[in-house]
């Protein structure tokens, strides 16, 4: 079994906390029962509609307008467009990295608080199973799973933050041509 490298980068949430670029808010419950339906986020669509990035409707090299068609609430921020909202059914921060040739990477970091790496694994396991259904069997090692498509490298990982709590992230990276 191959060993995947541990990715030690500042978390998106840390960057946002320092930069103050985006804020997520939660509201208290209501005494009225309401039913709402939320359209699927780009990462929740079935594999038939996936772009070259691995995300529905998004191809590598897409410009900011194309990203905003898929994620209308995405706002310009450091290095690309940032979207605070749902990803795979959980609150997350998504960064659509924009390079000189357009979309080059998508990083999703969930805002769920995992008090430990073991706790993070409880979120990682069902998400890995879901992504295995979308991209085929993954290679995995120590809370990191990876997939390769014809044009993308995809990594789901739990990584420790500065206080050794777990941070769950999913990265879609463009394969070199």
Task: Give structural attributes.
single chain, 177 residues, alpha+beta, eight-stranded antiparallel sheet, 8 strands, disordered N terminus
Structure in words:
With 177 residues, the protein is an alpha+beta fold. It has one domain. It has 3 helices and 8 strands. It has helices at residues 12-19, 64-70, 117-135; strands at residues 75-77, 80-87, 90-99, 102-110, 139-140, 144-148, 152-160, 166-174. Residues 1-11 and 13-47 have low confidence and may be disordered.
In spatial order, strands of the major sheet run 1-2-3-4-8-7-6-5
- Rounded mean pLDDT is 79
- Percent range of helical residues: 10-25%
Calculate Rg over CA atoms: 16 Å
What characterizes the major β-sheet?
Answer: 8 strands, antiparallel
What is the succession of H and E elements? HHEEEEHEEEE
Q: Tell me the distance between the termini.
A: 26 Å
Which outline best applies? globular
């Amino acid at each position: 079994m191959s060993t995947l490298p541990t990715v030690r980068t500042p978390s998106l949430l840390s960057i946002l906390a320092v930069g103050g670029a985006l804020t997520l808010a939660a509201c208290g419950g209501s005494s009225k029962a309401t039913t709402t339906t939320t359209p699927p986020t780009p990462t929740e669509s079935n594999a038939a509609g996936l772009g070259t990035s691995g995300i529905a409707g998004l191809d590598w090299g897409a410009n900011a307008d194309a990203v905003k068609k898929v994620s209308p609430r995405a706002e310009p921020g450091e290095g690309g467009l940032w979207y605070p909202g749902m990803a795979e059914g959980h609150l997350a921060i998504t960064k659509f990295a924009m390079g000189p040739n357009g979309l080059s990477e998508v990083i999703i970091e969930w805002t769920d608080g995992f008090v430990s790496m073991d706790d993070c694994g409880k979120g990682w396991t069902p998400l890995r199973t879901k992504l295995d259904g979308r991209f085929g069997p993954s290679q995995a090692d120590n809370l990191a799973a990876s997939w390769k498509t014809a044009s993308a490298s995809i990594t789901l990982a739990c990584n420790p933050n500065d206080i050794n709590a777990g941070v769950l992230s999913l990265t879609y990276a463009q394969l070199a041509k």
